[in-house]
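Summary of Year 1 activities. Much of the first year was spent building the evaluation harness for sequence design. The harness presents a backbone, in tokenized form, and records the residue chosen at every position. We chose the following record to illustrate the format because it has been used consistently in internal testing since the harness was completed.
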């Protein structure tokens, strides 16, 4: 029958009439505890099963489950069984895994009841649980359309994660990992953000994947989005210089658009022109400027309708009409300026002419000093100032003296 031992409580000599004996035969000390999964997922039900050693009578065996040092479940039977029957006692503990079970030790102990509230431990066996939480796939927080060559920040979030420090979240495009930053806004949430700049128009797929680095037995979870990338340049509005009474065209245009385009020219909230196109468009509106329109604001507004989104992309550009005055006023101002310029020129010519006449008059009526001699000869010519007055006489001779007593050269 193998190894066995007998345990007794209050063992006394057989010659006493009140002799009480509790003899328990322990055939072996084998205690089998079923091993739980390597990782237990939060909020799921699990079992820990403990099979006790072979003991007779069986109703003296007690199997106890302890969580740490706390007793959570006892099991025993009222049947003594048979000495030669290998009918073992079992204790099955059902529980739901939670955060506090991570790293928690559960122990199954086997004891025999020796009577008089005395028990003796035969053997025990323990298991340590490892738990995790990964209930749902990543959530991508932004799915809005993106303009080509414009940087946007995309965020992927994994909620209710435990342990969060072991969770790895990544962004992928065409199988290549994008540079991202991981953070934990709270103890059970992991986020990964990436700065993404699309280079091509159309639909682009991005994938967010989440996995436990140290738990390869836990499958990874993914989520993907298709982001529509569009092109919509800023519209341009042109209002030329305006004068009262002269009609002008206000031009509104936009080009190189991807998708269905609607272009509007507005005066305040009033729509003046509205057209549809697919890639680009120019519209205009003719205005007869009046004084009351001076300072009026006009808006060139473009609206792009995307393929699978109810959201419309709208861009606007404003310009102001400046009315500078009437045509008659313009010509009158120009005429007055021209007349003033001509008068100024006439006055200048007249003043120059008068100055010249006065100079000639003074020269011709100048009286010479009889005693003053004008140097002759080449040696004195260079000493005559440029201002020297040339006196004209019809009868001058070289070296002679005229009637005024001035020596001629």
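For this record, the design step produced the sequence shown next.
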């Amino acid at each position: 029958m193998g190894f066995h031992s007998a345990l007794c409580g209050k063992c006394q000599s057989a010659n006493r009439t009140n002799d009480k004996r509790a003899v328990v035969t322990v055939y072996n000390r084998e205690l089998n505890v079923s091993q739980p999964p390597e990782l237990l997922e939060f909020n799921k039900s699990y079992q820990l099963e403990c099979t006790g050693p072979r003991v007779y009578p069986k109703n003296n065996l007690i199997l106890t489950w302890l969580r740490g040092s706390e007793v959570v479940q006892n099991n025993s039977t009222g049947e003594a069984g048979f000495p030669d029957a290998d009918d073992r006692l079992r204790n099955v503990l059902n529980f739901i895994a939670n955060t506090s079970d991570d790293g928690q030790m559960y122990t199954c102990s086997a004891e025999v009841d020796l009577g008089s509230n005395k028990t003796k431990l035969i053997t025990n066996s323990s298991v340590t649980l490892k738990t995790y939480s990964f209930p749902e796939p990543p959530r991508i927080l932004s799915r809005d359309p993106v303009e080509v060559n414009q940087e946007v920040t995309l965020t992927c979030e994994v909620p209710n994660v435990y342990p969060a420090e072991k969770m790895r979240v990544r962004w992928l495009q065409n199988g290549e990992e994008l540079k991202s930053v991981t953070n934990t806004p709270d103890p059970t949430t992991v986020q990964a953000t990436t700065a993404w700049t699309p280079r091509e128009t159309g639909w682009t797929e991005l994938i967010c994947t989440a996995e436990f680095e140290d738990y390869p037995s836990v499958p990874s979870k993914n989520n993907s989005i298709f982001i529509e990338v569009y092109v919509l340049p800023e519209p341009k509005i042109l209002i030329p210089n305006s004068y009262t009474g002269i009609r002008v065209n206000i031009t509104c245009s936009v080009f190189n658009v991807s998708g269905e385009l609607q272009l509007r020219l507005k005066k305040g909230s009033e729509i003046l022109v509205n057209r549809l196109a697919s890639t680009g468009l120019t519209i205009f509106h003719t205005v007869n400027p009046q004084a009351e329109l001076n300072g009026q604001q006009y808006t060139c507004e473009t609206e792009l309708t995307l393929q699978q989104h109810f959201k419309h992309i709208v861009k606007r550009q404003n310009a102001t009409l400046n009315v500078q005055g009437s045509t008659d006023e313009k010509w009158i101002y120009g005429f007055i300026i021209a007349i003033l310029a001509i008068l100024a020129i006439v006055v200048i010519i007249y003043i120059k002419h008068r100055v010249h006449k006065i100079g000639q008059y003074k020269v011709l009526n100048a009286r010479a000093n009889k005693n003053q001699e004008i140097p002759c000869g080449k040696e004195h010519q260079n000493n005559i100032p440029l201002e020297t007055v040339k006196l004209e006489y019809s009868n001058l001779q070289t070296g002679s003296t005229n009637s005024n007593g001035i020596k001629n050269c």
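The first helix runs from residue 327 to 364. Quantitative recovery figures across the full test set are reported in Table 2.
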